[in-house]
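Thread: Newbie trying to understand structure tokens

Hi all, I'm a second-year student working on a class project, and my supervisor (Dr. K.) asked me to get a predicted structure for one chain before our next meeting. I've only ever worked with sequences, so writing a 3D structure as a token string is new to me. If someone could post the tokens and maybe explain what I'm looking at, I'd be very grateful. Here's the chain:
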Amino acid sequence: MQPAHSMMMHQDFFRIGFTMTLLEKIKQTVMTPNFMTASRIAAAPVIICLLLYENKWTTALAALVFSLASITDYVDGYLARTRGLVTGLGKLLDPLADKLLVASSLIMLVEIGFIPGWIVCAIIGRELAVTGLRCVLVENHQDISASWLGKYKTGFQIAAIIPLTIHYPYFGLHFSAIGMFFLYGSLVFTLWSGADYFIKARKYLTL
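---
Reply by user tm_fold:
Sure, no problem. This is what the structure looks like when written as tokens:
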């Protein structure tokens, strides 16, 4: 009986050790900037699917998914800076993940009639133009980090999309009206930051 009992204890310790090792590996993987970036990319199709079946529940859930994905943008930046994990690939993929998340959400909001399409055309047009400019800057070995205007632009876009996605009034708050206020603010910063980007990079743009 004693050997059997000892063997069972050994197996239990093995399972506990294996589980702790697995959890630690998962934690190390999750708490990396690249994983955070990938999670924002993965959130985009989830939001699209939720808004395809628009109602009070799916819009609220889509807003929650977007909020959590947006938080990862700040978390991965913090992790990259504090842990010395800033890479050229991260600098390139991070804004692309942001653009995919924002563009997908805005397009779906137009699709279900929550916001006017012309604003989204202006925002996405700017994003495409700046993305092309970033490629030129990368070829010239220039810094492609976002400027303070770009950070304000992103902040206003997030502040607009969350209430616009919720859409329906709750607790006496008209989330649609709140979202439109921030959407027009994001439009201003979107065009301003885009113009600033091209002005600063004009010496690298030759005909």
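A couple of things are worth pointing out once you decode it. The mean pLDDT is 79. The chain has two domains: 1-30, 33-204. Feel free to ask follow-ups in this thread.
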